[in-house]
Fold this sequence. Notes:
Layout: E1 2-3, E2 11-12, E3 41-42, E4 54-57, E5 64-68, E6 71-76, E7 83-88, E8 94-99, E9 104-112, E10 115-122, E11 129-133, E12 140-144, E13 147-151, E14 157-160, E15 170-174, E16 181-186, E17 192-193, E18 204-209, E19 213-218, E20 224-228, E21 246-248, E22 251-257, E23 260-265, E24 271-276, E25 285-288, E26 291-296, E27 300-304, E28 311-315, E29 320-324, E30 327-331, E31 341-344, E32 351-356, E33 359-363, E34 373-379, E35 383-390, E36 395-403, E37 407-414, E38 417-423, E39 429-434
Parallel strand pairs: 1-4, 2-8, 3-34
Antiparallel strand pairs: 4-39, 5-6, 6-7, 7-8, 9-10, 10-11, 11-12, 13-14, 14-15, 15-16, 17-18, 18-19, 19-20, 21-22, 22-23, 23-24, 25-26, 26-27, 27-28, 29-30, 30-31, 31-32, 33-34, 34-35, 35-36, 37-38, 38-39
Amino acid sequence: MAVIDLGEHYDELSLDAEPRRGWRITRGFRVGVVLALLLVTVTAGAPPRQPVPELVVPAGREASLTVAEDRLFLTELSSPDRGITALRAGDGRRLWRLPAPAGVVLSVIGVVAQRLIVLATPEVEGPSETMALDPATGAVSWRHLAAFRGWGVESDLLLRTEPSDQEPVTLVSVAADSGRIRWSQPIPGGAEPVHQDDAVTSSRIVLGLSGRRAEVREGSSGRLVQAIGPPVRQPQAPDDHSRFPGVVGDLLFVAGGPDEVVAYGLDRLDHRWTARESGLTPDGFFACGSILCHLSLQAGLRGIDPATGQTRWVLPQLPVAWPVGDRLVASEAGFPAADSLMVLDPATGRRLGGLGRWAVLGMLPGLPGSRSLLGVRYTTDGQVWFARLDPATVTARIELVTRGSIGGCEIRAGGDAEVLVCRRPDWAFRLWRLPG
């Protein structure tokens, strides 16, 4: 086990330093989905083929860790180490540190276009600032007095300014590599960009507003194409996401009323269909094989025809599911029950097999076309097993066996490897680079 010695020499940088450029690392990945760790008991399995090297990174209770190619970025929120520290992924050696100014919280958004994107938020009041650092040196490449709110076309950043007596709320599209402003447009207060898969592949940007409304804008200019939804009468709270729009592929979903969703084509904004079902919300849709699926705590999992909006099948006892290639992995309401993870055919909802009792950490993201999940289970003798769950073959392959009390595990993409990150009782991070 390798333990990082945080007493090594490193460069300490200032937020006021002039931007400079050094050599660049290849593009990192953003963490796609973080799922809660569920503890379960196991009685059978097999050990991995070979030991997996481990790295330990000491950290505080409120710390977070970002994995990007050959770098780790440790963000501490409590004194005396408040700020961001860059570590070498291979051995944990400190490379540079960016202290957080007094009264400011720093958080890492991710690595995009060879830039580490950081959000600086005041602890009390005042505008937020988004900045980009050189991952190799920590030098500030660019900064804007606006808060990161989402992703635009071609990996651009969408930033939002705060309103003032002279200026309205403004949405700004910024090139991640250079910080160049591509466009800026005034938007309604409380408008938020709607997540579109892992990246915006459409030429349109969708903004969600309160009161079941949405705005569709041109991604290249920010120009308003059309506002969709009822007129403003009794706006709801901006954080009521049950009424927020959703986007899956070329379909835009907007709430038409209680348990009602209206679907539009994203490009031409033509009305496709209206569906009324118990528990139906516009942000509950996701792609599963050749159809749409919808999840809700009230109604469970259902398969929906994307052309008509008609429900093909309903499994009310399954409130959790993951689409993996042309299969679905779902969890029963009684989780963890025997054979609690099952593989389904999205077209029919038919059960194809069971994967056993695993808590799902998320999709293995490292390689293009990844078609497997990472699962964890705890044995009665104190072991912790991590397995690659393959719905295509309905099999679970053990990738790592370890001991010790750990939790809060997540799977990250680190260049050409998949990195498992867990927390120890002393809040240190434990990292393993899983074999391909």
